[in-house]
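[job 4471] stage=fold_predict status=RUNNING
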Amino acid sequence: MSNVDKIRSSFPLLFDGAMGTYYIEKSEKPLPECEMANIFDRDKILDIHKEYLRAGAAALKTNTFGANRRSLRCTREILDTIIEQGYKIALEAVDNVKKENNDSSEKFIFADIGPVPYDSSDDDSFSTLVEEYVAIVDKFLNLGAKNFIFETFDEGRALHEVSEYIKNKCDDSYIIVSFAINPDGYTRKGYSGEKLLEDFALDKNVDSVGFNCISGPGYILRTVDKIKIPNKTISIMPNASYPTVVNNRIFYSDNANYFANTMLDFLDRGVEIIGGCCGTTPSHIEKLSNNLKKHRIQSLKDEKPQVFKVRTKPSSNVFYDKLCGGKKVIAVELDPPADVDIEKYMNSLKRLKELDVDAVTIADCPVGRARIDSSLMAYKIKNEVGLEPVVHLTCRDRNLNATKALLLGLNIENIRNLIVVTGDPIPTAEKDEIKPVFNFNSRLLAKYIGELNENVFSNKMVISSGLNINAKNFLAELNKARKKVENGVEVFYTQPVLSENAIENIKIAKKELKAKIMGGIIPIVSHRNAVFMNEEISGINVDEKIIAAYENLTREEAAELAVSMSLEFIEQIEEYVDGLYLITPFNRVEIIRDIVNKYRNKK
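[job 4471] inference complete, writing structure tokens
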């Protein structure tokens, strides 16, 4: 009988529980990375494996979840030793327990591989990602491993390629791919758990797909009940429960009976591989094993009640409708204040309202400095001033959960025009006090919002993003923009046009991108302002001729030049943009007023 057939004949297959959290609980002086214990605390790892086997587990995960060079910051030689010892310890545990119990039943060892950290915004970083997985896989294959579990993933990049590589090397291998989802059914990077299952269910090289970690069994069960389970072997290995934090340490409740009872519900829904993740112990697995011996599976797989999504009647999006209708719209950016004195700011907004601009864009803590929240400001502007707000939304200061909560609030208030940006980095000197989040980048956030548009929102959120027309390598910037379009971006707001090169890049963008273009214009108000922007503002490149033109000008003369020069740039890009994106310098709305009035008078 083949290895794959042996595993299938063992269904329902019971895996072990947590290694990392249980190792911390068992060890008096646990190592920071439990994978290092394969070398320096070998007996403790061996004992844990044996405890799970005695509890009834038929499948063990090797203690190698974080065994990669990027996580452990180690050499290839040390990593190879960790992997080799991890696999040999699991083999020894199986052999020992079988001998002591005179047990001839099948036990399976799965090479455990977790996500390798990489910079999702850097294509070069991803190009080496598959190579790292392949090196890890090769080490396991050379040790004789046939079974692999890729667990706790928040996206599927690289896993199709790696699974194919394994099958080509060992066609009798068994591969499980498992994703970590929040209670709302999405991964921490914003990918739909349901769509990830559907995607990998179609991969002939993957034998089983499923969920593990982050959520307890009750939350994952709710997700399973809401989604369409694909025709594939399903694996479920939840956390023991939702954790609590005491004195900076994570604790899970002692809920082995609840865990074991709830896990049986998955079997009734067609799940054939079960086990535990963080917080589960041999006690959880033992109680689950005992329940399995008594449980009679009731097939509920095709008996799910249909879930109807109640949605309100869609409302119009005035700004987006104008943009798509061919009107050359005007959006003005006005940064919110850095304190609670907003009288001047509100007066400026009222002047923009009188100017009859089409929208006001609100930056989200630009340059990593705290300002009034852009979403709250948008609500105030829409309701008190009557201007259509376009909200900047960065990935820097919120995790996925906070971002979704914010999007839900914006949507019900019919504030639906967004500019998603990764966000400026926190200044280095402040990183000890202010920690950036960066769970995802603008491309992933756009994709996530697109999925909310499809599955949650009645009123579609219009996804916009930034386009750096001043980038030294504009072709690379263009490739990023194309990926953003693939992920749902419909509008690009460009960086300010302040050079001939920027004009040429806008022309290229208009030709190459299937999206609307809002051409960025920022009036320069002084020679010092020009030099500062050129030297210290990321994404802005001021032509040397422009900088020179402002030398020795009075405030009034510089303002006149700012207006005339902005109009010249507008004239040069107007044919290639769908709207104008005017950025207000230092709250000087009078300059924006003059630009808008003279532009309209010319037309």
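[job 4471] summary: The chain has 24 helices and 18 strands.
[job 4471] exit 0
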